[in-house]
């Protein structure tokens, strides 16, 4: 588990891009350049009470002088976005991690189909910027209630031109994933947005015969099964042989922390991948949405995932 560097960045500008979404530009107060990133990357924003929220970078990956993020005020959320809207005004200091990318573009792809729902369009803005700059083939489907409530729409129009398809439900235009058509060699689909949009895209493309490896998605909300009944289990630490008991009402991450074994975490919802660690044996109940299937044989996310009876951790 690697800790992520936290930087104190200054809010250079904060302007509404829709009535609910604030578009922030962050710069380093002393350094001319920030750590490099690639489209699809996100940063962690650390709140004063220690909580962490993830935001996709939506600026230009070629511009190392600034990070841009868009923060939607979630009335039903856990308070992080409301805090950001109240406090991240020009001149304020934001505690921000170095970027991490769990949602990269496929370099070898010949055609890119980007699908964004609401605030989920933010990583796709950075993807579109790079694809347009490189003269590569892409189209961006932007789904929102109306143009006025579509984040960063002016930027998208300037970047994409006629490659932008707006789907605004208030105007009766709802996105239908069937419009993507049959699978094509070298074509990759990237979807980010509400779970129901991602489910619809995956179901439709799956039925049309698109291979899973050509369909990529990212969610920033946990989709944990509310009916899941956690059971206690034991975690053995491979390096010391110590056996730690994980009660039903505590996460493996909490128990590791209590024993000084894990500090790096971020979302604690199974969506960011920060807490990932290796394991050697045991039947792991994977409850995250971030680990690729191929990694689940020997990696797990202790913030949400558990084990049946016992597991040996590569710690
Ligand atoms: S802390 Fe984010 S997946 Fe565990």
Automatic annotation (TrEMBL):
MF (Gene Ontology): 2 iron, 2 sulfur cluster binding; metal ion binding; oxidoreductase activity
Protein name per the record: Oxidoreductase
Domain 2Fe-2S ferredoxin-type: 233-315
CDD domains: fer2 (cd00207), PDR_like (cd06185)
Organism annotation: Methylobacterium planeticum
InterPro entries (alphabetical): 2Fe-2S_ferredoxin-like_sf, 2Fe-2S_ferredoxin-type, 2Fe2S_fd_BS, Beta-grasp_dom_sf, FAD-bd_FR_type, FNR_nucleotide-bd, MRET, Riboflavin_synthase-like_b-brl
Keywords: 2Fe-2S, Flavoprotein, Iron, Iron-sulfur, Metal-binding, Oxidoreductase
Pfam families named in the record: Fer2
Record domain FAD-binding FR-type: where: 4-106
Oxidoreductase among keywords: yes
SUPFAM superfamilies: 2Fe-2S ferredoxin-like, Ferredoxin reductase-like, C-terminal NADP-linked domain, Riboflavin synthase domain-like
